[in-house]
Design goal:
Number of strands: 0
Largest sheet: none
Order of helices and strands: HHH
Radius of gyration: 21 Å
Oligomer: single chain
Distance between the termini: 49 Å
Amino acid sequence: AGMGLVVGTVAVATALARDAVIRRLRSSGRWVPRASGALLLLAGSYVAYYGWWEVRVLRGDAVGDDPVIAVAESLQITLAQTVDSLGPLAWLLLLAALVVLTLAARTLRAVRSRRVGA
């Protein structure tokens, strides 16, 4: 249930903030595609490395200990523990705060656009 709440919070936050995020990304110019590409390259490289390591382990060519895999596993455990330590109530409050802030920003934007148009 806790992970479902986290995923739900992220999904709602993404849906509500999409317009603002897209505007900011458009204004950020050339560096966003490059940073995205670098991140994608990094993630893809890790997935390829992990697959190669797993094949070697299954063949018996490699032992289970690998420094790259160990660091990634440690990071994953730390992130999972952090998310779990916050608990469902904190994620629910974060979701509520995101909804309220988004609605307030949209209302403020609408009021400003009416003043400019009036």
